[in-house]
Design brief:
Shape: globular
Structural class: mainly alpha
Oligomer: single chain
Distance between the termini: 58 Å
Number of helices: 14
Radius of gyration: 22 Å
């Protein structure tokens, strides 16, 4: 009797050949083309990339990291969070505290304390500012604080089997409560003004074209790195279990898997990604305040993922660029119509383009079929 050999399917490739080509093009654009057009090309040239565009693209790439994090928990796990703005802001505040300490005596009051503390007649730094002058400690806090908050919240929420719209409402309440807390002056986070007027990072001035470009390149590399990590994650056995939880959590439990550990792990990973995005956002934008925790900010993250296409990884990144590019243009040309446009866009995508932009690119006829079915009342 001959031995029977079972050929098991191998792990899928991280990216296809065309995918690696697109990734390499994006890497070259971030690390070579953008710095060349900004630093080497004369401002009078049509090819010059202005400092404004560098800051805008850097900010949108931070948002794209958040959209990617949202796709991991919503698109691949079926958990809709309306509170991820909290983790973004926590990472931003951790970086902002370090940048405030870097000001030193260059502030308006020429004090070792941040200006807002001098204004409020504080005599010493509060205990939670004790390691804020260490860049290494700041890097740890950027990851640890959002991750710890997400772990504590997720542990109790998932063990209580809270899911669906109830989970979304609780996450929104969480970020709203945190926003109210950070608005209070006595918490030591700058109140409603937050942190601003940053001077330097690692002793290097922030307001220079070269430093702006360093932050831009670092943000782009982080986005690309997180994309590869997310791609590897969803292609692994762990990612397949996440998708099974999204589609039929009861069957996953019946098969012997405990969904709580998987959901908690991806929840913490997603929160950490948002925290890193917030830390990269603050030195490029130059301000962090409690408005970053507003429920509207978290809802926008969900809109980016929905517009681009959930469960695709690249779709939410595209959605972040499309929506925030439109926001940048509309808030200048027609600021009073921006929120109406955003609401209409979300409704239109939900009704007529449930697979988002990526779904439309893959199947251009899907929009026509959806409109036909909608007109027939299906």
């Amino acid at each position: 009797m001959k031995d029977c050999k079972l050929d098991l399917p191998g792990s899928p490739a991280l990216l296809s050949r065309s995918g690696w080509a697109a990734f390499l093009m994006a890497l070259i654009a971030v690390c070579a083309i953008a710095p060349l057009l900004n630093l080497m090309v004369e401002p009078s040239s049509a090819l010059h990339l202005s400092d404004y565009m560098v800051a805008l693209l850097g900010k949108i790439m931070c948002y794209a990291i958040c959209a990617l994090a949202m796709d991991l928990i919503w698109g691949y796990t079926g958990i809709l969070s309306l509170g991820h703005g909290l983790f973004f802001a926590l990472g931003g505040y951790a970086m902002g505290m370090y940048l405030m300490r870097q000001i030193g005596r260059d502030g308006n009051y020429k004090s070792d304390l941040p200006d807002f503390m001098v204004f409020l007649d504080w005599k010493a730094l509060p205990w939670h500012w004790s390691l804020s002058d260490s860049f290494v400690a700041t890097l740890i806090f950027i990851v640890a604080i959002p991750g710890l908050v997400a772990f504590i919240f997720g542990y109790f929420a998932f063990r209580s089997r809270i899911k669906g719209v109830y989970f979304s409402i609780i996450t929104q309440a969480m970020t709203f409560a945190a926003m109210l807390l950070f608005f209070r002056n006595e918490t030591g986070f700058g109140g409603n003004n937050g942190f601003t007027d940053f001077k330097r990072i690692l002793g290097i001035p922030l307001a220079t074209p070269s430093m702006r470009m360093v932050l831009f390149v670092l943000t782009g590399l982080t986005l690309l790195g997180f994309f590869l990590f997310a791609r590897w994650l969803v292609s692994s056995k762990f990612g397949r279990v996440l998708q099974a939880i999204r589609d039929a959590e009861g069957r996953v439990m019946f098969s012997g898997y405990n969904p709580i550990g998987y959901k908690l792990t991806i929840w913490v990973i997603s929160a950490v990604m948002c925290g890193v995005a917030g830390a990269l956002y603050v030195p490029q934008v130059g301000i962090i305040n409690p408005s970053e925790m507003s429920p509207a900010q978290s809802i926008e993250m969900a809109i980016w993922a929905a517009v681009g296409g959930r469960g695709t990884l690249i779709g939410p990144i595209v959605g972040a660029f499309v929506v925030n590019g439109a926001k940048s243009w509309l808030t200048v040309s027609a600021p009073e119509f921006w929120l109406y446009f955003l609401g209409a866009l979300f409704i239109a995508v939900t009704l007529f383009l449930p697979t988002g932009i990526m779904g439309l690119l893959r199947d251009p006829g899907s929009l026509i079929r959806t409109l036909r079915d909608f007109r027939k009342g299906r």
